[in-house]
Amino acid sequence: MYPCTKENPCNILILEDDLDLSRLFNDYLQDCGEDFCAHYAQTIADALMQLQLHQFDLLLVDLRVPDSFGIQTVRVLK
């Protein structure tokens, strides 16, 4: 699915419970000039729901969300 284009954007899931940090990631990605569609989750439960609904090219994962901690977060999402 590369390169990302307006017709075929990269799907990115941002798992981050801090909304300001999520916005910062989004702004950084926009500054990079890539075409992407960002989806957001604040908990591991939200992320798992998003993973059922969409196919993602990239996951940005906070390892300390309210319902998961550390490498266990990655194991659950895998």
Notes on the protein architecture:
The protein is α/β, with parallel strands linked by helices. The chain contains 3 helices and 5 strands; from the N terminus they run E-H-E-H-E-E-E-H. The protein has helices spanning 19-31, 44-53, 71-77; strands spanning 10-15, 36-41, 58-61, 64-65, 68-69. The strands form 2 sheets. A 3-stranded parallel sheet has the order 2-1-3. Strands 4-5 form a two-stranded antiparallel sheet. The model has no long low-confidence stretch (mean pLDDT 87).
Provide a short characterization of the protein structure.
The protein is of the alpha/beta class and 78 residues long. The protein has helices at 19-31, 44-53, 71-77; strands spanning 10-15, 36-41, 58-61, 64-65, 68-69. It contains 3 helices and 5 strands; from the N terminus they run βαβαβββα.
Task: Please give a handful of descriptors for the protein shown.
78 residues, alpha/beta, three-stranded parallel β-sheet, two-stranded antiparallel ribbon, 3 helices
Topology at a glance:
Elements: E1 10-15, H1 19-31, E2 36-41, H2 44-53, E3 58-61, E4 64-65, E5 68-69, H3 71-77
Parallel strand pairs: 1-2, 1-3
Antiparallel strand pairs: 4-5
